[in-house]
Please model this.
Amino acid sequence: MSRVEEILNIANHIPPFPKVAMQVMKMLGDPHVLPKDLAEVIRYDAAITANLLKTCNAAYFGLTRKVSSMDEALVLLGQDALKDIIIASSSARFYKGEAGGAGYQLGQGELWKHSVATAIMAKSIAPHFKGVDPGTAFTIGLLHDIGKRFLSSFVAGDFQKIMDRTYIDGLSFMAAEHEVLGIDHAELGSMIMQKWEFPEEMIEAVRSHHDPEALNKAPLTALLAMANTLVISLGVGVGADGLSGTMRGEGLKRFGITALELDRYLSNLLIEMERAEEMMTLSN
Model:
């Protein structure tokens, strides 16, 4: 079996994305859905139920009083916050374990931390990208590096070869990753998203989030590329692959993001990351 075949074989055996989460996300697209209907679905997933009560009381969601029941949480949180908690809870289970980003020289929990930061940044800048739903932006931010989670051990096994191609031949880390392994983490991530039956626009965004031309592509792809780069520029989740993309001023200007707004988004992210501490622990 070739290296690529071995990697794809692992990808084919990745557990499905939780059906409860997918069902709830579809239900949340209906403005007439009732909290009691959502509650009935969520109760079938114990992990989501537990994390919902834990996370909804976090400072990040700003409730004025402690919530003790799921029905109460559904009423007080609102659909947008509920969707964020469910997707975070469902995604975190795939980032558990020490090997999550070890091959990329990321410490335990760092890959998930980067994913949460990218989700928060993506949701923040979503209004600048025409037609992009903030909830979708949050979801794609959480899942954009899922390929790293399952490619990490292969990167570790051929790390020196990849670094040689980077330093000696001048390739980007991801280009070297692809040349040595036959596949890169963005490509693998898109295959996983396809296996999980996410919409095509989300699959393409994951596939192209390191593409140098990403800002010229579909709005969701451009948003993800920008959010990811901005998060890395703050040093959140910078591993062996370093700054895999650059963000030029004309790209920011194209989407109407001024220098002042950029400073505000970057500053707010650091504040939001502190408030989202409970979300960070979901993968522990």
Q: What stands out?
A: The chain has a mean pLDDT of 85.
